[in-house]
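Re: the multi-chain job from yesterday

Posting the exact lines I submitted so nobody has to dig through the queue logs.
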Amino acid sequence: MDYEFQKIEEKWQKAWKEACLYKVDIDFSKPKYFVLDMFPYPSGAGLHVGHPLGYIASDIYSRYKRLKGFNVLHPMGYDAYGLPAEQYAIQTGQHPAITTEVNIKRYREQLDKIGFSFDWSREVRTCDPKYYKWTQWVFIQLFKHWYNKASQKAEAIENLISYFEKNGTNGIQAHCSEEIQFSAEEWKSKNEKEQQELLLNYRLAYLADTMVNWCPALGTVLANDEVKDGYSVRGGHPVMQKEMKQWSLRISAYAQRLLDGLDKINWSDSLKEIQKNWIGRSEGAEVLFDVSNSNHKLLIFTTRPDTIFGATYMVLAPEHELVNEITTGEYKNAVSNYIEETQKRTERERMADTKKVSGQFTGAFAFNPFTKQNIPIWISDYVLAGYGTGAIMAVPAHDSRDYAFAKHFNLPIVEVISGGDITNEAYDSKDGIVINSDFLNEMPAKEAILKINDEIEKCGIGKRKINYRLRDAIFSRQRYWGEPFPIYYKENLPYPLDEKKLPLELPEIDAYLPTEKGEPPLGRAKNWTTEEGYPLELSTMPGFAGSSAYYLRYMDPNNENTLVSKEANHYWKDVDLYIGGAEHATGHLIYSRFWNKFLFDLGIVCEDEPFKKLINQGMIQGRSSFVYRIKNTNKFVSLNKKEAFDTTEIHADINCVTNDILDIEAFKKSNPEYANAEFIFDEDDKYRCGWAVEKMSKSMYNVVNPDDVIVKYGADTLRMYEMFLGPLELSKPWDTNGIDGVHKFLKKLWRLFYSRESIIFTDEEPSADELKILHKTIKKIQEDIENFSFNTSVSAFMICVNELTDLGCHKRKILESLLIILSPFAPHIAEELWSALGKKDSICKADFPEFNAEFLVENSFEYPVSFNGRLRYKLPLALDVPVKEIEEIVLKHESSQRWLEGKAPKKIIIVPNKIINVVV
RNA sequence: GCGGAUGUGGCGUAAUUGGUAGCCGCGCCAGACUUAGGAUCUGGUACUGUAAGGUGUGGGGGUUCGAGUCCCUUCAUCCGCACCA
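And the result, structure tokens for all chains:
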């Protein structure tokens, strides 16, 4: 009887589906466990072998947890809105919903073949109105709430309104776009429109003019994390800065909580670090500088108030609102020229030459409140409008950027912290003693910061301030294929739709392009208004909208009355294990933490962090193969001989290559260009290819499709080989050649149950050796799974099966346990052999075997005996030999004589049951 | 520039957390069986040397009886951020 994986896998996949084996419900008799995968965007290319890596790992863990008695929620769905489907629609006229449907179907087929234990009854799709109803609903809640810094949580906008009615802004601690002040009377005297406008300053979802990353080629706005080096991440189109009225989410209100929350969650250090940097907290002070001969004051932010005596000039961002007002007559032209020039430069150009110093004096001076000196005010694009206050006090002696600027424009440099050599470079460090600074002199810099902050606050010229780099998230996209905003406009002001009207469904349009007026595609929709005739918002939501709360929807996917019921949320609580790629560090993973915290404030969810533990799986890279064509010929030379020729390296399709040997016939057929190719072979008449590890992609001809692997080796082999490749978190190249080893292992396992003719297991009692092998493996597998070290589990299984084969063990008591611990990794073969043992119920319902340490007890130990740390021979001894006696045995041992050379040893180290080391 | 991660055979990797470096698998070499096969099985395989031995975990230094593991330093690769005051 042979291992017919195709038949077996088909049979059990069907049986599991019919039995709804993986369907879960709330069950208070069992502890819950929620294992989540980052749901895929169903692209047209289908899955390649790298995509399921994380899914396999999470599936193994889910299956393991079930065997351990947990009620495991392990759902899957699709992040179905997105640019590629829309780009495809623009090109072909095909509705993106159709493309998406087709792609989802293909993904599902591929996923099903791998034998995952997903509860598909809970599937979500972000483009499904039943699903995005709740995305829209959360948006309305964000619109209807503001952030109270006093209570540190989101509160209903009605509370803010009644506060304004009583006190105006007096004493309010609200997170807002702009600090504004008005009295209760002023508030009450405003009309509806004016009040609504003011409220946008506080709402957590608000409409405002913002500088956005505009991508003309895609016709839309992009979030910061969707732009890299001035180009769009998707498509690589140029991105420019543009001011537009856009929806934003006030995520900055949650900056501190997002930072604090990182300490409570079990994520990798690198990922936490990325989020910390992205949030970018910095502690400092805001200080007001008077502009000389004027009533204007300049507010600056600094993290080094201790160096204020060294502030010899000031710099404003070119976009700073006071630039025009303070610039003196004779400098007006020069200043406006400079501003014009910086605006012309794209973001990318600005980043490309950060070393180039540029700036312009405004003619104005500011008064340094401590040195009592008038210092010149400059503008320069090295100061960013979007950070802090858009203005700085420049301390050239202790800030490298200020230093470069001062040197370039010949501005004074005054040393105020000792420890560096400011004739050469700025001394940026906080290690040093304050000098030239009046009452701060002789203090360590760190101490001086506290002292000067007190002084600044005492004088009323400023206050301590914490700044965050985290910007509010721009939430509008001028696109078709996304969630419509549940917003209509009355007198040009936004109002939320009645929640009972949700979902607001995406309308049909005649073309997936902007209108002639330059409106977004929804401008083409007919009757895109409320029943009363008010126009609806034309933008749609961005990609991260639908993924921000999907894990909550899985808890209660069909609930039509609420996002997630209290009952479901209190049972499933949060995601215990989340597996996905690190590329979402500053996008999805920060937005969904924000949404979750907001929903937590509203009492809708009971945990304030959504993902307790998170693992980033590494990327699977491609292993490309190369052939070497001699220039100007159609002749290819083998790797070993290529040095003698002038060659061009060309990607060969990896389907034509086995163990780096080129299949000549297949290669000739792979491209008409090669049909008549000639070859220079190695001595053994083989053509050897070169290789390199590269991204897996069509253009490199190195894509491996899981379907092909499954046809040839089966899903169980694929699953185990993906794990066998190496540690989950690491990137590693895929090399199909290695898969044989794993496949052979499964065949060898099969041989423990079946001979060529028949089933051969026995009911004999297991021997001590067999029990030892089994329990050693149980222990190892359990530890490995809990540490997510799946690669070492696979080799432990191989060792176990090798050893049992050597002992000729076919005993039921051993094999049963082995199958259970293997079943998370290779569920099909485990289920098949389980039923062959006569079991009626699925192996998924078995209990993970208890490890029993008694079976591992040894009665002797083979000591490695070292001389000066070098292993020389081995000495088997009983476990209970006393140290004193071991010493004697070692010294008398004939092998020792050679290394002692007649001398007495200086020292003998004996670690019982570990090692013996003789120091000579 | 700042922050994070990773460096071990020809390749993917392992090492009980300071105690026998190279487990498991690929590849390679040799052999067995055989309708010579991309099947199966057996043995070998870090480097060097005929051998005894010597060398060896990116490089250099240190702590220790003992270091892949700890400390200092340096190099390389990858990832993130980047004029963030």
